[in-house]
Amino acid sequence: MRTLRPVVALALLAPLLTATPAAAEPPEFGACPFDGAECAELSVPLGEGSRSISIAISRVRATGTPAEHRGALLVNPGGPGGSGLEYAVSKGAKLPESVRRSYDIIGFDPRGVGRSAPLDCGELGGLFEHPAPEPVPAGRRAESEHLQRLRAMAEDCLQHNPDAAWMNTTSTARDVDRVREALGEPKLNFLGVSYGSYLGAAYAAQFPDRVGRMVLDSVVSPDRWHDFDVRQAFAMLDQRDTLFEWIAAHPEFGLGETKQQVRKTYSTARDGLTGSFGPAEFDNLVYKALSRTERWEPFARDLSAHVHHGAPLSPALPESDPESRNYEAALRTVKCADSRRPTEDEVIGSLRALRAADPEPIVTGLEATTCAYWPEPVEPARFGHPDMPPVLLTQAEHDPTTPLDGARRMQARLPGARMVTLHDSYSHGVFASQRNPCVDDAAANYLLTGELPADDLDCQGSGLP
């Protein structure tokens, strides 16, 4: 197995000279590379030295009267690695009208993403070669080869990105505060979805007195990234069983009349894939479908067409276009820069535990396994603060991407936080996503008035499609 060059690892851990950053200048907004917003760039310190990078931000102006205006609402779509520049437009359009009238919606590309000093990890250990190797190693030889690929991923990232240690959530939270300051906002009003919830909680840890109205949607746990990824993988198994039952209840797909029959059809199709679309690519497709129930019918129809007519299945990430390469690079870099790395034994132990639970686990989301070969983080992420004000969390009961138990653990780190739980919901993304009036009204009222529910709130979802 290859080893990291010592100079790379040492460079990442070397302390940098400290300097107090200058006050953030008001941004000069101009045209965006897309319609519906105005864009600007903001200089932020890279780390603890004198070097800086530019953060791209966008703004969609509030549509209401001056009397209705409540300032800026920063939004983040998740990831890590998700570009948020256009998110001000796409998410802004879905927000309740009262929120759109009251807030300028501010999007941004976090450091390492999109137009903000984008990361590129080169070949990422062969991640963009298709078909990829079988993603679930069985046996010691396959496990050893799997570890070698993870080491290659880490080595590619570290050699291509000497500043990788500073591409972490703690630094991104400081960038968010620079955006707040540049916009002249005394407090940060924030909507963070998925990883955005993790970012919001990390902001509160550093700047508790600057937290304004904060909605954290589909909440990531405060656990080490590897532990979060493994918990998610087990949740995906439960979700896939639910999907199999749902397909079995829809005979028009012709994939089986029972969950067991659907499972057999699924496994046979996966095992029989040839060409550039193999089991790893299939698992990527399934992973994406499992996160949102509106994707279940298209997935079932595609699988049916493949089984009965030999139709090709839809392409799935990771692809080799610049945007996808950046996403995959940032996803792993941020996770590895945020939390304590797993050992090789922990990585293999997790894979064996998943295989013991199911012979065909979905391990697509186990990106933090490559962190076994990274240096320890210089700034591990921290969450919440005793002096922060209460904030609002929104969460689907059966979300497999950010499971409910982890969301509750994050809630415990945020003093006085209220959680709105959407029961009988199986999709990732709740506020201004599933169009549930109970959730949307509670979150909008909080953003407009600052009033939280008196206690945790239970809302009823629509169930399976």
TrEMBL record:
Superkingdom, natural source: Bacteria
Keywords: Hydrolase, Signal
InterPro entries named among the record's database cross-references: AB_hydrolase_1, AB_hydrolase_fold, Serine_prot/Carboxylest_S33
Signal peptide as annotated in the record: 1-24
One Pfam short name: Abhydrolase_1
UniProt domain AB hydrolase-1: residue ranges: 72-425
GO molecular function: hydrolase activity
Family designation: Belongs to the peptidase S33 family.
Protein name: Alpha/beta hydrolase
Taxonomic source organism: Saccharopolyspora karakumensis
